[in-house]
Design brief:
Structural class: mainly alpha
Largest sheet: none
Radius of gyration: 22 Å
Order of helices and strands: HHHHHHHH
Number of strands: 0
């Protein structure tokens, strides 16, 4: 949707692919609350759009700035679950007493309103802070960042470590380490 709205579909898909690959290892199983992938992706795309970023080294600044928002979102979700436990207790009370103040519809609407407003407020406050931070970083180091030989392929390969970790196979981890050492060796010696 963001890509269609900004007419930058390819760029938005590139950013979204990075975040998808990065968080591939973290699945919502049991009581684990995964990072909020959508919040981080939308924040990153907002930064990219706001500052007109098109080159991967500059977009990396927006990606790195947006990553903490994913964990902040899951922390907020954990805190909101405590409030939902109180609503559940009120629902049990309603089942026993049929008190109209604790009707399931009222409790559900209240829970949705609190969740929506809390998520929206935190998202926009953090997004405002990220806009200030990224603007400051770009103002100081735009030229140095543009000098980095960084491509989308390299970013996607770095993010795909999340997919490799999802395999849970020690041999795959060994191949990853060996590959990283080979890249470092050949890059450092000028043969690559």
């Amino acid at each position: 949707m963001f890509g269609l709205a900004t007419n930058e579909l390819g760029l938005c898909l590139s950013v979204a692919l990075f975040f998808e690959l990065l968080w591939l290892d973290l699945l919502p199983a049991g009581t684990f609350i995964p990072p909020q992938l959508v919040a981080a992706t939308v924040a990153c795309l907002s930064l990219v759009s706001r500052f007109g970023l098109a080159e991967p080294p500059l977009i990396l600044v927006a990606i790195l700035a947006s990553l903490p928002l994913a964990w902040l979102g899951s922390t907020l979700e954990y805190g909101l679950r405590g409030l939902r436990n109180k609503s559940y207790n009120r629902l049990l009370n309603w089942a026993r007493t049929l008190d109209p103040a604790d009707r399931p519809g009222v409790l559900a609407a209240r829970s949705l309103a609190v969740t929506f407003s809390a998520n929206l407020t935190v998202f926009f406050v953090v997004l405002f802070a990220l806009h200030l931070l990224v603007g400051f970083v770009l103002e100081l180091g735009r030229e140095q960042l543009l000098g980095l030989p960084l491509t989308w392929t390299q970013l996607w390969l770095a993010a795909s470590i999340g997919g490799l970790l999802a395999l849970r196979i020690k041999r795959a981890y060994g191949f990853l380490a060996l590959g990283a050492l080979l890249v470092i060796f050949f890059t450092g010696s000028g043969r690559f």
